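INFO  loader      accepted 1 record
INFO  loader      residues=180
INFO  predictor   begin
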Amino acid sequence: IPSMKPFQFTNDTDDIWVMNVDGSGAANLTPDVGSAVIFDRVPEWSPDAARIAFISNRTGVTRLWMMNADGSSPVQVVPSSIEAVENFPAWSPDGAWIAFLSNTEADGFAIGIARPNGDDYRTWPGEGSDVGRLVWMAEDRILYSAFDGTDYEIFALDPETGAGSNVADHAAHDFRAYAL
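INFO  predictor   done
INFO  writer      dumping tokens
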């Protein structure tokens, strides 16, 4: 577990900050580079704590980005040639992949994965609507919550096969999936 914790501070813009667990040493990793930058959000540490995946609209569209843990070298992960909006990054346990929610005008929402350098990009149609955060489980399943038309359920996606399933199929709302 890194000694620095990423967090999001909201004022006129949303930036990603880190600080020591005792509250000292706060540092803004994503200071605004211009007035058009509105937000940098949803930071997620890589398993080795060397990088942080996040979403940003710094190019005008909400895209998946990655930077070093000190805020250096921010890069957009999914190429701009793919017309999508990304959200809710989740690292694979080995750090080889990043899962994310992808939304395109033509296809609606999907669960996407890509290598941290943007290679091997692929998506699968998601179940339901109003999708919540993703979590990549150690047994190599990507979990997410979504509205199935009746209530919120937890769905699983196998990134090897693209097979999906409802893993919490019952009559109560299941809003979030977390790895414990």
